Backbone:
């Protein structure tokens, strides 16, 4: 694995759900360089979720090849894929999805706990991430005491606490008001770059997409660069 | 083959004939049941009174049977019947138990109430044990719990204490006993054993009280008392009998009966007529004729009884009309029989000549008395 | 469509479409609870009805019934009664128990004068007609339909009986129609019976019919002066009650089981409904936000509950009727307890009872839905739409004081005495303790969970965190399983205690190598002194202890008490004494040892004296001790045999205990004894161990139904747990999805669920054990004592309970895992990112 190896590579990936409907993904190619922050746009129902599932190893394509950090996903079983996710990937969801019965601290530490990282190191890292997202004083709070924006910050902290190579964010600001959304997008971008990770931002909002380095559009089963319309 | 068969048949016939001959000729002074040897009723037995007013416990069946017409203080006309039966069941006689049923006492009481259109009827049965029921020898005294018929100083006292019906009557004889049949030996059929000892006491003067549903009323009237005892009474062919006991207005009395067979015709008949002067005429089977008239059908049992009759006995020719039609008694519980026992008026040449009772048995089911045919 | 209807459609019927299977399971659970309660009630009612009917036939139209001891009184008493002013009819009778050869149970025989009996028991005598006159034939008997069936006899057959040790033969004259008398009975003429069974000059019962308008009470008093000792006149109610008392204890058992069934079912319904409402909080909040009023939401949910209840209740009552019919047909009205034979018992559908249970089941389900419905309708819609709010909903259940109050009330109720011989306060105590215990569960859960340390391993750790964070929810999930498990524990302890006590007791009362009985417990069969000498002289017999047993009418208002004349050691040695070993007794009174039932029922105690009517005289006795007796529910009195023989001259015996000489073989000696008697093969002889074994088998069989019902209760409880878990699992789908995204292995998620299940199960089991233990104290010391009037020593079947607890915990874990399985599938994981 060299420094040039793409963090994520999809080659000629196709996926269709029924024989009659058109293929959701049709011979799609995509490569994500290390440190790159890309936004993928598209209309609802076009297949963004499918694409994300395949990237995360949660779905297998009909044809094509997927590599994460040079590793072919095809040969990995469910457990291996899970471990891969644990070490290489971080997720931020639209619906936040933090565990209501864990404290902020414990929520953030989840990926570390799953990887069985030793205690002291875990503590330090969690504190670091909380500071990074601006929730240093709320470590002991429960999610129901937080606002929507704060909750999403916890999610971001959790997504990056284990230093993944790739962060996948699915409509992270869909449930937030415009002001908070702006802050969150900035935070996301900032933290991805700060850790030297790559990021994929799925969104249908142009304004959100513009916080990324590169914008792609999913259309007709393939990705193409975004062309601004006059 | 043929010869052998004939010989066998002949032998069988001879055997049967011999048996019959023996049975007919051999003196039968007792009749053997399974456990008890009952004395047979034989001619030539002298009836003695007051001894024979009492019970004859060795004989199988016995009854004291009083019937009569009453007038109440309120002017109602009523008919009454009181009967005490004694029967000696065919059971082992050696049971030491105090409850051993060597004698059974049965009592019936009935009141014909034409104003109400109904017959009041009560029946009881008990074993003669512990002095609670019994029939004494020596004079008339038969009782069942609180019911009693006894002769006291020449008078009969009858007490009936039923649920709805009760009597307290005194019956005073005005004539000596009338011995029926041959000095009291009354044949009832062709077989020599079918007979009873039988006397009647007509023209008894009655006083007393009758209570229906608790309502008491004083009564007076005239009655007829029969006492009869026997061991085997009915021939095999006899299905029942018709009997009358009429107190004639002229002071005489007529008793007549006939046995019927399965076809409804006469099987045997007899009668006694006491003339007003006291002399007795006895009628044989050819001299008594019972001719049924109008029939009445019981709504309860469905049995048809002829309730109007023409009875001819010797020179007498009487028409009988009932006080009321429904005088049926269902005594299946105590005697197994349904019978019609009712007050009747006797008319001759369109004129009332006497009053008495008519008894009809064996309509419906043929009457079956214990030991009614020789074993 | 009305607003309520809209809510109903949106919220309730959606449930039907989405999870038809789960809904079906809820209905099935309600159905089961109702079915059990209905079945038990029907069986009970059938039993009572049977007894009432039998008693009525025998009582007939009697106004007063004069009774003495079984042995009888002089028949001159009957004659005197018949002549009493005010008495219209008097019917004498001899009631006997005879021993048909080859049968283990005695046959009840009523010897009457049918002509007199017709005035008092017309229905019975009508069943004898038209054979009344034939009954006068010697050695004849008429059997009831039930007796004919059981003995396999018909008209014209011979019935062989035992009287003493000789055989006697009766001819069966006829079989009565079914309707004439429902139980086993033989009817004979009294003259025949007196002669046959050596009762010349004796009757033991006279039924009286009084003149209309006669003063019954006045007459009864007058008769009391006339009648000899030990003979008294009672009204027929006493007769009927006496018959019912015999089975009272058994029916108490049934009532307990019915209570278990109903309670468990009720709590299951409540918890299911509560969780279902909780789960739909969001949708409900949405409905409220859209404009449905509180009342409409409440009504819709309650109606849903009632509908479910109705569906479950209707299948439940039908199922219950079926169960009752089958149980009665297969096992008899006493469910194998041997109290009586069910002939026409049954299965007659009783619409009234079915309708009642239908209403109860529906009402309980509606109630179970109403409480959470009210709560759900109250919450502000915005709050309900927020995640994590479900927990807030359970905050209200936290306060502990209502639970403590009820618990306390239950404890107090346990000390109260019986009412009418029934432990009503005992039942109330159980119900209160249970309810109070249930209300304390959330508080308990919260405290325990707060104390729980958080383990390192992430799966377990997350599980613990989940539990800590949702203690209130845990309480509701646990409700059903705690109810059923604690009741099961309570019953298991009670039955085990009983069994242990019974076994110990058997060892004390059956200490010998060989035990023998002359036949069934009948009046007519016993051994003479000669017979006893024969037995004692048999080779191999070292020592024999004979006993004479007979019923004594101690209190005319109660069933007869058993009098046992046997060898008693110094200070009551040889008897399983409970107290009084060295009591000081008043002079001039003979010693008697009474069973515990005598203490409870007749108020006697050690040192007190009482009068014993025996053999026509009255004897002054002093209570020398109280012993434990499981053999006679109405009470038993033990007197020294030597004294008894001196007092009554009756040296007969009906039971014997044999100790063998050293080296003697049990079977050989038994065979020798049998050979000494005519018809010896019908003697009931068995080794001590064999008798004990059979007795224990009978015991187990009698409780078989209890075990079955316990198992069903536990199953229902588990169903409750399953529901709880699956409801939550679905709600936590999103969480599971997220965890899978974040990298939790599938098996880790499942392990987490298993851990939650196991911990919750353990919590429920521990609490259930404790609560069950408390309940068992009430069962053993209050309910059992007051129902049966005997004591049991508490014994806890640790092994059994431990195994059951382990089973339940694993079952809970498995259930949790199974319910979470669907939630951890890949499609579910993907769905986490769909917009809800």
Residues:
């Amino acid at each position: 694995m060299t420094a040039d190896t793409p963090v994520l590579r999809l080659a000629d990936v196709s996926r269709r759900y029924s024989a009659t409907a058109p293929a959701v993904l049709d011979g799609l190619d995509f490569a994500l360089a290390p440190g790159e922050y890309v936004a993928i746009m598209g209309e609802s129902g076009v297949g963004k979720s499918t694409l994300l599932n395949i990237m995360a190893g949660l779905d297998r394509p009909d044809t094509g090849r997927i590599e994460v950090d040079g590793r072919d996903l095809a040969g990995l079983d469910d457990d291996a894929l899970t471990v891969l996710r644990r070490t290489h990937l971080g997720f931020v969801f639209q619906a936040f999805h933090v565990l209501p019965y864990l404290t902020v601290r414990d929520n953030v530490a989840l990926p570390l706990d799953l990887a069985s990282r030793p205690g002291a190191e875990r503590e330090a890292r969690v504190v670091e991430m909380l500071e990074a997202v601006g929730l240093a004083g709320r470590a002991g709070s429960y999610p129901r005491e937080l606002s929507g924006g704060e909750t999403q910050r916890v999610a971001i902290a959790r997504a990056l606490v284990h230093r993944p190579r790739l962060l996948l964010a699915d409509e992270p600001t869909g449930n937030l008001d415009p002001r908070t959304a702006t802050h969150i997008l900035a935070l996301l971008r900032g933290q991805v770059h700060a850790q030297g990770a790559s990021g994929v931002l799925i969104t249908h909002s142009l304004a959100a997409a513009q916080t990324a380095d590169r914008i792609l559009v999913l259309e007709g089963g393939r990705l193409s660069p975004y062309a601004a319309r006059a | 083959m043929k010869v052998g068969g004939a010989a066998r048949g002949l032998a069988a016939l001879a055997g049967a004939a011999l048996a019959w001959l023996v049975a007919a000729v051999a003196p039968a002074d007792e009749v053997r049941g399974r456990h008890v040897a009952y004395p047979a009723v034989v001619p030539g037995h002298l009836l003695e009174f007051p001894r024979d007013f009492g019970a004859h416990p060795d004989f199988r069946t016995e009854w004291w049977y009083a019937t009569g017409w009453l007038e109440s203080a309120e002017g109602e006309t009523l008919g009454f019947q009181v009967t005490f039966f004694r029967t000696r069941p065919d059971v082992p006689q050696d049971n030491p138990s105090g409850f051993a049923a060597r004698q059974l006492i049965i009592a019936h009481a009935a009141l014909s109430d034409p104003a109400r259109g109904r017959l009041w009827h009560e029946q009881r049965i008990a074993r003669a044990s512990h002095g609670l029921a019994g029939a004494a020898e020596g004079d008339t005294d038969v009782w069942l719990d609180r019911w009693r018929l006894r002769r006291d100083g020449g008078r009969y006292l009858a007490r009936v204490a039923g649920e709805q019906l009760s009597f307290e009557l005194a019956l005073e004889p005005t004539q000596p006993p009338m011995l029926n049949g041959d000095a009291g030996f009354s044949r009832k059929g062709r077989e020599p054993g079918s007979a009873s000892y039988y006397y009647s006491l007509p023209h008894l003067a009655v006083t007393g009280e009758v209570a229906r549903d608790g309502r008491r009323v004083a009564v007076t009237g005239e009655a007829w008392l029969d006492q009869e005892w026997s061991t085997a009474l009915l021939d095999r062919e006899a299905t029942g009998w018709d009997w009358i006991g009429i107190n004639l207005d002229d002071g005489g009395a007529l008793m007549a009966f006939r046995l019927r067979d399965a076809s409804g015709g006469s099987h045997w008949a007899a009668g006694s007529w006491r003339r007003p002067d006291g002399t007795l005429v006895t009628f044989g089977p050819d001299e008594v004729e019972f001719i049924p008239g109008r029939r009445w059908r019981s709504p309860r049992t469905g049995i048809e009884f002829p309730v109007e009759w023409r009875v001819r006995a010797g020179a007498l020719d009487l028409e009988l009309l009932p006080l009321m039609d429904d005088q049926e008694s269902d005594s299946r519980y105590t005697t197994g029989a349904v019978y019609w026992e009712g007050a009747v008026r006797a008319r001759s040449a369109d004129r009332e000549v006497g009053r008495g009772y008519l008894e009809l048995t064996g309509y419906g089911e043929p009457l079956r008395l214990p030991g009614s045919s020789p074993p | 469509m009305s607003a309520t209807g809209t809510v109903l459609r949106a919220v309730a019927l959606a449930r039907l479409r989405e999870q038809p299977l789960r809904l079906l399971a809820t209905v099935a659970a309600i159905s089961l609870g109702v079915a059990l309660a209905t079945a038990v009630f029907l069986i009970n009612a059938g039993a009572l009805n049977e007894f009432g009917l039998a008693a009525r036939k025998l009582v007939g139209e009697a106004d007063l019934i004069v009774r003495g001891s079984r042995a009888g009184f002089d028949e001159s008493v009957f004659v005197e009664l018949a002549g009493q002013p005010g008495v219209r009819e008097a019917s004498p009778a001899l009631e006997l128990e005879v021993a048909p050869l080859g049968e283990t149970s005695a046959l009840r025989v009523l010897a009457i004068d049918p002509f007199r009996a017709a005035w008092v028991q017309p229905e019975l005598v009508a069943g004898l007609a038209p054979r009344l006159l034939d009954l006068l034939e010697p050695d004849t008997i008429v059997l009831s339909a039930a007796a004919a069936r059981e003995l396999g006899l018909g008209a014209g057959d011979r019935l062989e009986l035992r009287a003493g040790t000789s055989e006697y033969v009766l001819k069966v004259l006829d079989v009565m129609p079914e309707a004439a008398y429902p139980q086993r009975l033989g009817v004979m003429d009294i003259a025949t019976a007196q002669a046959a069974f050596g009762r010349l000059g004796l009757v033991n019962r006279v039924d009286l019919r009084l003149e209309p308008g006669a003063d019954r009470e006045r007459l009864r008093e007058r008769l009391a002066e006339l009648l000899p000792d030990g003979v008294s006149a009672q009204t027929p109610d006493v007769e009927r009650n006496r018959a019912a008392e015999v089975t009272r204890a058994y029916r108490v058992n049934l009532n307990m089981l019915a209570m278990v069934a109903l309670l468990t079912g009720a709590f299951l319904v409540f918890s299911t409904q509560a969780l279902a409402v909780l789960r739909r909080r969001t949708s409900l909040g949405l409905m409220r936000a859209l404009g449905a009023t509180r009342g409409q939401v409440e009504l819709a949910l309650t109606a849903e509950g009632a509908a479910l209840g109705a569906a479950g209740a209707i299948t439940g009552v039908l199922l219950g009727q079926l169960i009752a019919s089958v149980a009665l047909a297969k096992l008899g009205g006493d469910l194998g307890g041997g109290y009586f034979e069910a002939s026409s018992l049954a299965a007659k559908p009783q619409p009234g009872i079915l309708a009642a249970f239908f209403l109860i089941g529906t009402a309980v389900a509606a109630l179970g839905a109403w409480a959470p419905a009210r709560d759900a309708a109250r919450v502000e819609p915005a709050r309900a739409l927020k995640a994590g709010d479900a927990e807030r909903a359970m905050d209200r259940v936290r306060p502990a004081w209502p639970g403590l109050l009820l618990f306390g009330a239950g404890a107090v109720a346990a000390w109260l005495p019986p009412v009418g011989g029934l432990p009503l306060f005992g039942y109330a105590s159980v119900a209160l303790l249970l309810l109070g215990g249930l209300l304390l569960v959330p508080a308990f859960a919260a405290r325990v969970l707060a104390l729980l340390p958080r383990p390192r391993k992430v799966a377990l750790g997350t599980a613990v965190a989940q539990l800590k964070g949702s203690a209130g929810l845990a309480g509701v999930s646990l409700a059903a399983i705690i109810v059923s498990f604690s009741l099961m524990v309570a019953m298991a302890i009670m039955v085990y205690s009983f069994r242990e006590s019974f076994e110990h007791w058997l060892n004390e009362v059956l200490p010998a190598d060989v035990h023998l009985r002359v036949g069934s417990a009948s009046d007519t069969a016993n051994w003479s002194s000669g017979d006893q000498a024969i037995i004692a002289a048999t080779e191999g017999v070292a020592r024999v202890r004979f006993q004479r047993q007979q019923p004594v009418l101690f209190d005319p208002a109660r069933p007869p008490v058993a009098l046992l004349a046997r060898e008693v050691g110094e200070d009551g040695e040889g008897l399983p004494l409970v107290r009084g070993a060295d009591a000081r007794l008043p002079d001039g009174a003979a010693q008697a040892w009474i069973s515990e039932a005598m203490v409870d029922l007749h108020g006697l105690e050690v040192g007190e004296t009482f009068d014993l009517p025996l053999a026509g005289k009255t004897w002054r006795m002093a209570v020398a001790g109280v012993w434990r007796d499981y053999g006679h529910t109405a009470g038993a009195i033990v007197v020294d045999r030597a004294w008894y023989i001196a007092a009554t001259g009756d040296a007969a015996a009906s039971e014997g205990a044999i100790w063998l000489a050293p080296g003697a073989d049990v079977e050989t000696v038994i065979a020798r004894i049998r050979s000494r008697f005519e018809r010896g093969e019908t003697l009931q002889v068995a080794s001590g161990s064999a008798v004990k074994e059979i007795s224990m088998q009978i015991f187990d069989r009698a409780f078989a139904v209890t075990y079955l019902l316990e198992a069903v209760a536990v199953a229902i409880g588990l169903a409750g747990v399953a529901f709880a878990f699956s409801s939550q699992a679905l709600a936590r789908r999103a969480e599971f999805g997220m965890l899978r995204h974040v990298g939790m292995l599938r098996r880790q998620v499942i392990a987490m669920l298993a851990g939650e299940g196991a911990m919750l199960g353990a919590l429920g089991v521990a609490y259930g054990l404790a609560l069950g233990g408390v309940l068992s104290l009430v069962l053993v010391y209050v309910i059992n004592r007051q129902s049966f009037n005997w004591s049991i020593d508490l014994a806890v079947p640790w092994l059994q309970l431990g195994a059951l607890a382990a089973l339940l915990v694993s079952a809970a874990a498995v259930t949790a895992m199974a319910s979470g399985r669907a939630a951890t599938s890949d499609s579910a994981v993907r769905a986490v990112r769909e917009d809800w």
About this structure: Residues 1-27 of chain B have pLDDT under 50 and may be disordered. Chains B and A do not touch (no CB pair under 8 Å). The longest strand of chain B covers residues 195-212.
